[in-house]
Amino acid sequence: MPPPTRAAQQEQLDGAYAVCRGIAAEHGKSYFLATRLLTPDRRSAVHALYAAARVADDIVDVGADEPGRDPEGELLAWSRAALAEVEAGWSEDPVRLALAHTYRRYDIPREHLVDFLAAMTSDLDVTGYPDLAALDRYMWGSASVIGLQVLPVLGTAPGVAREEAAPHAIALGEAFQLTNFLRDVAEDVDRGRVYLPADLMAAHGVTREQLAAGEHTPGFTELMREMVALTRRRYDDAALGTPMLARESRDCVRAATDLYGGILTEIERAGYRVLDGRVRVSKPRRLAVFTRRLTAARLARVGSRPPAAA
Fold this sequence. Notes:
Blueprint: H1 6-27, H2 29-35, H3 40-65, H4 71-88, H5 94-105, H6 110-122, H7 132-154, H8 162-183, H9 185-190, H10 198-203, H11 208-213, H12 218-239, H13 250-269, H14 283-304
Helix pairs in contact: 1-2, 1-3, 1-5, 2-13, 3-4, 3-5, 3-6, 3-7, 4-5, 4-6, 6-7, 7-8, 8-12, 8-13, 12-13, 13-14
């Protein structure tokens, strides 16, 4: 059978990015809305990175919930294929194809994918973390390297090296991840996992059994208040890096930060009662953030275009 033509390959690649866009639209509504502020090429690349992370995460979470599934075997097979295909630059799987193309196009170090997949593998048997340092080590693979993957896609401002912006990209990945942990305490404990540091839980008199029973105690309120403050400090660290990004990417990051940071505000407004159900940013609030950033993003794109030839 003759190899596919260049046109056929491009059609397959376009279809792969479309699949990733659908996954991002379905599962990451705040992220997806923020990516609308990016240039089309950057937007597609971020969708590919998000979709790959989502597929791997779902193998661990959904696979564990469905009888007859083998999440460990499935994740191992998916990981091996992804690493090989990123190296080769092609895949017949649409999500891994878009991932491989994005990694090559933006020269993303393959080690970031290795570290991410290692963190997903640890979720198969690690159910808790003794302290914040241990949680940070886990977040290196589950969150920090996500920030480092996205950074080359967003690009940096003239004169700013990628390494200079990297610590702030790491902080933003961790801030998003911590926000997820605080929002999803009830869902995670149902899967047998707790992403709240055990030493802080003990200091506030909170036990895993109380979390599993959905007991909202004064100690849990104080624990959540402390964790929200800690997470906001990560957002503050990340914000220092936004001016280092390419001008046309900054409003996407600001919108994502506003939307995800808004979850912390909703947690506070709910009296930290995240054990009662998932706290969400309302659709009107999401649209208001998007609208506010849209004009600025358009102006940034115009301002970043090279002058037309005479």
